[in-house]
UniProtKB/TrEMBL annotation:
SUPFAM superfamilies cross-referenced by the UniProt entry: Actin-like ATPase domain, HD-domain/PDEase-like
Protein name: Exopolyphosphatase
A single MF term (Gene Ontology): pyrophosphatase activity
Cited InterPro entries: ATPase_NBD, GppA/Ppx_hydrolase, Ppx_C, Ppx_GppA_N
Domain Exopolyphosphatase C-terminal: 322-497
Domain of life: Bacteria
Residue ranges constituting the Ppx/GppA phosphatase N-terminal domain according to the UniProt record: 36-311
Species assigned in the record: Neoroseomonas lacus
Length: 506
């Protein structure tokens, strides 16, 4: 391969080169290449390709990797290596998991891979390493995670104790969907007994009682997608999707009892994973029982994102993912990075008894408040709304997405009854909708006053005084109470339930 292809430079508008990195997750069921762009707090995936090969099928009976899949895997790996290098990724690293580490011919397969691709880094992970990488990935999206992490693959299940954002004890169990099915000879009841026996050997699982169970892995994500489709949930994003303990038990019971034909007809069911779904459902149900977890939280982050987390600086990892995601959007689509901090200060007195979480959302809303500035005026509200609701930020739960999306749409004067706002309104409670309406109106007023510049905003002030909302304008600062300003301060006061007043200050 020539040097131009190997470098594959990518440039930002200001001439800086965005670094790229890539990892291949070489699993028991699938092989997946992911290419990340940048080294930011929220991983940005720009390429994601999966090949379902079933390397680990038959491992229980033969002790060897599936020979047919081995040949396919070698071909796929050459392609993945070529794609990653052509895209300018560096480093590129292969992470081989349960099937390769446990198979008799695993070392031979790795040797054949190294012979074809001598400059490719290949790591055969231990169960402990696999578990802790998954934990790093989950904590990138859930920095305060508290409870138990379960990462199911085709060959193994990794469990990690999570305590207020820190990974603790970890274990790898032979309960992957493919391996468990083969161990149990396809008998789900027999597999349930095996899962129970394995969980009984991990006494610390019960310490998750009343806490959260974070689920990672393609088979479990497939269950989440099925539930989303069947309940007409308004946001088709698995990451941060939550089920109560009872909902998770009901879902697993339905999937376990269904025939293959019935599963294939269920909304959201992935054709290539249908045979694994009952086993994943059963393990989820047994794990709920063993842990006593109060709810299930699905994570799209896992092993690959954990690998990415170790490529970025510790300072970057410590950033608040919500604010980081908002700042990323502002950097790509906004006009002036000096304005959001000024807006955060300007809106600080709007809400009485504001919690830390509410304040963080308000600050994030200030950062994203100008991301429609380059869009067509007739579509700014709608484009900004969907840009926020469906963004790639891993630290945003569905409530945060809905709140920020609704706020920015209202800041751009979206009609309150616009049909596209329905998803956000369904995801928020009455108090959340009202806060979004207040903040959207306040930001609309701020931009009318300032033209999107901190210099003009500095000539204004907004305060609540008793039953009044007072807008103060500094004489000679370039701002004045024109018709649009008066109309918008009145609208903000109305949603706050206050009277509006405009005062001039020397």
């Amino acid at each position: 391969m020539d040097s131009a292809m190997r470098e594959g430079p990518v440039w930002m508008e200001d001439g800086r080169r965005l670094p790229r990195s890539a990892t291949v997750d070489l699993g028991s069921n699938s092989v997946r290449l992911v290419v990340f762009e940048g080294r930011g707090r929220n991983p940005l995936t720009i390429f994601n390709e999966k090949a379902v090969l079933g390397l680990g099928r038959g491992l229980v009976t033969t002790g060897r990797l599936n020979e047919e899949a081995v040949d396919q895997a070698l071909t796929v790996m050459v392609r993945y290596h070529t794609v990653a290098r052509a895209m300018g990724a560096d480093p590129v690293e292969v992470l081989a998991t349960a099937a390769v580490r446990d198979a008799e011919n695993g070392p031979a397969f790795v040797a054949a891979l190294r012979e074809r691709l001598p400059d490719l880094t290949i790591r055969v992970l231990t169960g402990q390493e696999e578990a802790l990488l998954s934990a790093d990935g989950v904590l990138l999206g859930f920095p305060d995670a508290d409870g138990l992490l379960g990462d199911i693959g085709g060959g193994s299940l990794e469990l990690v104790e999570l305590a207020h954002g820190r990974a603790g004890r970890a274990v790898s169990l032979p309960l992957g969907a493919i391996r468990l099915s083969e161990r149990a000879s396809g008998e789900i009841q027999r597999g349930r007994a095996m899962a129970t026996e394995e969980f009984n050997r991990v006494p610390w699982l019960s310490e998750a009682t009343g806490r959260d169970l974070y689920l990672v892995g393609g088979a479990w994500r497939a269950l989440a997608r099925m539930h989303i489709a069947q309940t007409a949930y308004p946001l088709s994003i698995v990451h941060h999707y939550v089920l109560s303990r009872e909902e998770a038990r009901d879902l697993s019971g339905v999937v376990m009892a269904a025939t293959r034909r019935t599963l294939e007809r269920m909304a959201g069911a992935p054709t290539k994973r249908v045979q694994d779904l009952p086993w994943a459902a059963m393990v989820m149900r047994r794990l709920l029982r063993a842990s006593g977890a109060r709810r299930v939280v699905f994570s799209a982050n896992g092993l690959r994102e954990g690998w990415y987390a170790r490529q970025i600086s510790s300072e970057e990892r410590q950033r608040d993912p919500l604010v980081a995601a908002a700042q990323d959007l502002a950097g790509r689509f906004g006009r002036d990075p000096r304005l959001p901090p000024a807006l955060a200060q300007w809106t600080a007195g709007l809400f009485e008894r504001e919690s830390n979480a509410e304040a963080a959302l308000r600050v994030a809303a200030c950062w994203i408040s100008d991301i429609g500035s380059h869009d067509h005026p007739d579509y700014r509200a709608e484009h900004a709304y969907f840009r926020v609701l469906r963004q790639a930020g891993v630290g945003l739960d569905h409530h945060a997405r809905a709140f920020l999306a609704l706020t920015v749409a209202l800041r751009y004067e979206a009609g309150p009854e616009a049909a596209y706002l329905q998803a956000a309104r369904v995801l928020l409670d009455v108090a959340g909708v009202r806060r979004a309406e207040i903040l959207g109106a306040a930001l609309r007023l701020a931009y009318t006053l300032s033209g999107g510049t901190p210099e003009l905003l500095a000539g204004t002030g907004l305060e609540r005084e008793g039953g009044r909302l007072v807008l103060r304008l500094v004489e000679g600062s370039g701002v004045f109470a024109g018709e649009s300003v008066l109309r918008r301060v009145e609208a903000l006061a109305a949603v706050l339930g206050l009277e509006s007043t405009v005062e001039l200050a020397a």
